[in-house]
Amino acid sequence: MDRIPLAIVGAGGMGGRHLRALGALYESGMANVELMAVCDLREDNAKHLADSAQQVLGSRPQVFTSMEQMKTQCPDIQAVDITTDSGSHHLVAEMAFDLGYHVLCEKPLSLTIRGCNRVIDAWKRSGKVLSVGEQERRDPICRLNKAVLDAGAIGAPYAFLLGSASGGSDIVIWPWRHYKNIGGIFVDAGVHVVDQMMYYLGEIEEVFAVAKVWESKRYRGERIGVGDFYEHWYDEVPDEIDADAEDMVVSTLKFANGAIGQWTSFYAAHGEPLRYGMIYGSKGSMQPAKQRRGEPLTVTIDGVGAVTGDEVLTLVPDFHLDELSARLFGADRLGSYTTPFEDADRFLVALEYYELGQCIAGGTEPEVNAYVGRKDLAVCNAALESSVLGRPVTVAEIENEETAEYEASINTHWKI
User: Fold this and answer.
1) Kind plus residue range of the DSSP H or E element containing 62
2) Where are the beta strands (DSSP E) in 236-395?
3) What string of DSSP letters covers 197-210?
4) pTM assigned to the model
5) Domain limits for position 245
6) How many structural domains is the chain composed of?
7) What would the mean pLDDT of 237-249 be, rounded to a whole number?
8) Do 264 and 161 touch, CB atoms closer than 8 A?
């Protein structure tokens, strides 16, 4: 199989996570992309990722500190995978398209709609592929969630109740996720949540929300990040930071199909952590499984009772995973899996890489394109805008920039 040469741009913790995903794709025997270079403004980061690639992939990619330099010295590279901090995604993606690269961009595409639109304009000019990194919907159990809903097992959807509470006053994952103008945690994590909600139930049209900053001081905990992806930089994390990004948002959502959602995102919760999710329909309920955990899905149907684990597969006899998912997770029909979190994490990003290669080779559209990525952001920013304005906000208002008071300071910060 011909492999499309690519580069990882952004060699911090997320770049390392994506490198592990490339390792999984190589191991699958279905690799259609090949890492040729890593690029980061910090040469030490780029060298660290290149050294890791030597261990994971068996070859050391070239190291660059600018994409312009990379374009000149390594002209065979066709695509870039952008894993920089969230706030800079729009700048890096726009430059990548102008240099003639295909792009896989980590979510969110930008922190504001105006930034998204700049990326979309550059993408259209370039004629290249743009895929947005929303890998969680690719989890085998999330695919099963979707299949069960589409089969009508719980009837017409009525309500989606979803929430989490944790974090206290610790720095969550990395300091920049507490800075509004660089990538607040609600947006950075929330676009994943929104993508799954709309993947399951369709588009969200309106949001009414209240948002707060409870912990304006955040402190370095005993560990940083997700898994061990960020440990290399632990000593660079300050003992404390001043936070200005919202750490609690409580939202009511109106879906286009008439369903109502209640979404609580609470990253300043002290004491007992909480996580819940339930979709209610006209014939029953479904407790959607958490991505990257492999826990069994539970469906409770009126007159039938609870159906869980592999029994759920009887509700969707035609459900099958794609070939690469089946290779990575071990079967093409799964009611649960025991794959460790770190492996599930890299498998899902491997699926994104593989799809990127397919789209470049075949001229096809990725599952999560620019418009899906923009709408995921728009729902999050509609919640934040609603809190500022004290009224419900439609997603169309945000996408059309009819109101953008919350986004204004971010646009000013990035001069867009």
Assistant:
1) strand 62-64
2) 240-242, 248-255, 260-269, 274-281, 284-287, 298-301, 305-308, 393-394
3) HHHHH--EEEEEEE
4) 0.96
5) 137-322+330-335
6) 2
7) 97
8) no
